[in-house]
Design a protein that fits this description.
The complex is a heterodimer of chains A (378) and B (330). Chain A has one domain: Porin (Beta Barrel). In chain A, 3% of the residues lie in helices and 60% in strands. Chain A is built from 1 helix and 20 strands. Chain A is globular. The two termini of chain A are 14 Å apart. The relative contact order of chain A is 0.13. Chain B is an alpha+beta fold. Chain B has 8 helices and 15 strands. An 8-stranded antiparallel β-sheet of chain B has the order 1-2-6-7-10-13-14-15. A 3-stranded antiparallel β-sheet of chain B has the order 3-5-4, with helices on one face. In chain B, α2 runs antiparallel to α6, α6 packs antiparallel against α7 and α7 packs antiparallel against α8. Chain B starts with 17 loop residues before the first helix and ends with a strand. The chains are: A mainly beta (378), B alpha+beta (330).
Chain lengths: 378, 330
């Protein structure tokens, strides 16, 4: 429904705690509504690079006051070209060799979850699956949350485990294992009636086959080698979010900053600023900008002059690069039960915005997405 | 499946157009015909009324009886004038100093009042009732500064320690009054009770604090007239409400007249004096208790009342002492 003023939020929350006070009309959604969401998303990269169409649907079913079941299903259709390796070109410029005009892949993914609330504590268990021709994944996550100080402080801790299998078109039945464990913790603190801050930490440890079976590296002194990355990856990330309501402009401003580092030598930073405003007639608009920068992996090179060591990759995702982009969206509450959201993003990836290491101009591209979501609550 | 029909929305209590009703009745099987039933009563020092649309009188009467019983239960429980009320029990402890453990319902009301205190920057204060000692209706002269200062020493929610369910009065001579929240809370509860009994169309009116159960059966809103603060019987604005609640507060409701000047019954916990800002204000909110406390806070804020209402973002209308009208409904 959009942002209500912090004063009203405080008064309403206290009123809702009074026994026998109902906040809404009888046919409007209650505190534990049934919900169904459907989203269509189109993502595309400039040139003839990737294009993804996503259809997603999810449902939430409350069981009594304390339990909730969730289910989520996704279908993606990916097409377009992707860089395989780089070759030296005339005038010292690096050229790219891309996959044929269109690679098609169809991914189906889904997850189910259950939440239980006991007093100020909430426990959520989720189990998910994902399947495409050359990739399959099974994951489980467990998250615990607890509210303190009359719900002004929330602590969350969680663990997720995924067991993936990676194969390729050349050897479709040869699935190699990739395991990832994720530990995360966070604290959300309501500072005053207008602002809240959220701090979260995440540590993940992956091992197994972490390379990309479709990528190659070019070695000038002799031919092509398959992409080969270290068998272990440890990533640490910290994120800070600050949200504040500014009465002078009757809007909320949100800033999200994050830093991450890993044992491959990739360090990254991101900053996102967003403005959100509620307009008469149940409209909510938001607009913002996002900046991202990363340094390249220690073993990354666009191409190798001499045969590299055990770890080597020319994958553009491990390169040094940065991006700058914008976000815009509008949500309309059609009735107390239905809302529709339309959002768009566009981002410009540039090697010049990298925070360290190397990258190549050939990997500069623009990506954009738009999405439409229909949401129902009963 | 019940289908609603066209009913004339009538404050006067007219029920439905027979011709329309029969036409629709012939067209749709299983149609529900509604009649408006009205149940006036007195509670909490006000004229009150429950209005329910129902296919027949019996369920409406039973539901109204249950709702009125709950309102009277709250009146008894929180009355300042009854020795057996929880308010009296708290005030016996408050007078002597000490601690008292309260029941769950009272605890949520104290939590709510504490939130109002915070959101009004300390102006909405359950302990300011002590000031009535010098502002009774039969008062004929202004209290002197020393008297006010002595009373103000016994006022202040910040002097009370509230750790649910324990209320601790650090020093004696204080007093608590739930008058500012119980009536509106009672209206919310009564409406929930009716909704849970299956009523979708009707309202609860407790002395002008109104909670809508649902619109008229044809879907049209209730037209609520707002009393003009200076012209008795005149309406300052008429608001259409489909749902939610509206509460009104004004300096005309109860006042003391000293040397020809009117003093409002709303007393500032800062100065000990009656407030002098808005002549009247009405606020709409999903919950009557929020609408009610917002009107009281706007009155207590005096010159800043209108600005505070804008900041809260609830629909409202106000009139100031110069009879200027403002707000989102103006």
């Amino acid at each position: 429904m959009g942002a209500i003023s912090p004063r009203l939020a405080a008064l309403t929350a206290a009123a809702m705690a009074l026994p026998g006070v109902q906040a809404r009309a009888a046919d409007a959604p209650g505190e534990h509504p049934w919900g169904v969401d459907a989203t269509h998303l189109e993502y595309s990269e400039s040139g003839s690079r990737m294009r993804v169409r996503v259809n997603q649907a999810s449902a939430v079913v409350p069981i009594g006051e304390s339990f909730q079941l969730k289910a989520n299903g996704i279908q993606d259709l990916m097409s377009g070209a992707s860089p395989i390796f780089n070759v030296p070109g005339p005038a010292g410029k690096t050229h790219q060799v891309l996959t044929g005009a269109s690679v098609f892949d169809n991914r189906k993914a889904g997850d189910i979850g259950a939440s239980a609330s006991i007093g100020d504590n909430q426990l959520t268990l989720r189990q998910g699956w994902s399947k495409e021709n050359d990739y399959k994944s099974t994951w489980t996550s467990l998250e615990g949350k607890r509210d303190f100080n009359r719900k002004s402080t929330t602590l969350a801790v969680g663990f997720a485990f995924s067991d993936d299998g990676v194969s390729s078109h050349d050897a479709p039945d040869n699935f190699r294992t990739r395991i990832k464990r994720d530990f995360f913790g966070g604290v959300t603190q309501i500072i005053d009636e207008r602002s809240l801050v959220e701090l979260s930490l995440e540590y993940s440890y992956s091992n197994g086959f972490l390379s990309d079976p479709y990528k190659l590296v070019f070695v000038q002194s002799g031919g092509l080698l398959p992409d080969a990355r270290p068998g272990r990856r440890r990533q640490t990330a910290v994120t800070v979010k600050y949200l504040t309501y500014v009465p002078a402009i009757d809007s909320s401003l949100q800033a999200v900053g994050s830093l991450s580092t890993d044992n491959w030598g990739i360090g990254s930073g991101a900053l996102e600023l967003q403005w959100k405003k509620e307009l008469p007639g149940e409209w909510l608009v938001n607009a913002g900008a996002r900046y991202y920068t990363q340094s390249s992996a220690d073993f990354y090179a666009p191409l190798y002059l001499t045969p590299p060591g055990d770890a080597h990759s020319s994958d553009y995702r491990l390169a040094g690069f940065g991006s700058i982009g914008w976000i815009a969206g509008v949500t309309k509450q059609l009735t107390p039960n239905f809302s529709v959201q339309i959002a768009a993003e566009r981002s410009y990836r540039r090697v010049g915005l990298r925070s360290g290491g190397t990258g190549i101009d050939a990997d500069n591209y623009i990506w954009g997405l738009y999405l439409v979501t229909l949401q129902a609550r009963f | 499946m019940p289908v609603t029909l066209h009913v004339i929305p009538a404050e006067a209590g007219i029920q439905y157009l027979a011709a329309t009703a029969s036409a629709v009745h012939n067209a749709a099987e299983g149609l529900t015909m509604f009649t408006l039933y009205r149940y006036p009563f007195a509670a909490m020092g006000s004229r009150c009324e429950i209005r329910l649309y129902a296919p027949s009188e019996e369920p409406a009467a039973a539901c109204a009886r249950a709702a009125i019983n709950d309102i009277l239960r709250l009146e008894t429980k929180y009355s300042r004038y009854r020795d057996d009320s929880i308010t009296a029990a708290i005030n016996r402890v408050a007078a002597a100093g000490g601690a008292i453990d309260v029941d769950a319902e009272t605890a949520t009301l104290l939590d709510y009042a504490a939130t109002c205190y915070e959101q009004s920057d300390g102006l909405f204060d359950l302990t300011s009732g002590v000031l009535r000692e010098v502002w009774s209706a039969d008062r004929r002269e202004l209290p002197d500064t020393d008297t006010l200062q002595r009373l103000l020493a016994r006022v202040g929610w910040n002097k009370v320690r509230w750790e649910s369910p324990r209320l601790v009065f650090g020093f004696p001579g204080m007093e608590i009054d739930f008058g500012g929240v119980v009536k509106e809370y009672a209206a919310d509860r009564a409406a929930t009770l009716c909704a849970e009994a299956g009523f979708r169309h009707g309202l609860i009116d407790l002395g002008g604090d109104i909670k809508i159960i649902g619109p008229h059966p044809d879907g049209t809103p209730w037209a609520v007239g707002i009393q003009h603060p200076r012209i008795k019987g005149a309406v300052m604005a008429t608001l259409d409400l489909f749902e939610g609640a509206i509460a009104t507060s004004g300096d005309y409701e109860r006042f003391v007249e000293i040397d020809g000047r009117r003093y409002s019954h709303i007393l500032s916990p800062r100065t000990g004096m009656p407030v002098c800002g808005l002549a009247g204000v009405s606020v709409a909110a999903p919950e009557c208790v929020v609408a009610g406390s917002a009107t009281t806070i706007a009155m207590l804020m005096e010159d800043r009342g209108a600005q505070w209402l804008d900041e809260v973002g609830l629909p409202h209308v106000w009139m100031d002492q110069q009879l200027r009208v403002g707000g989102t409904y103006a």
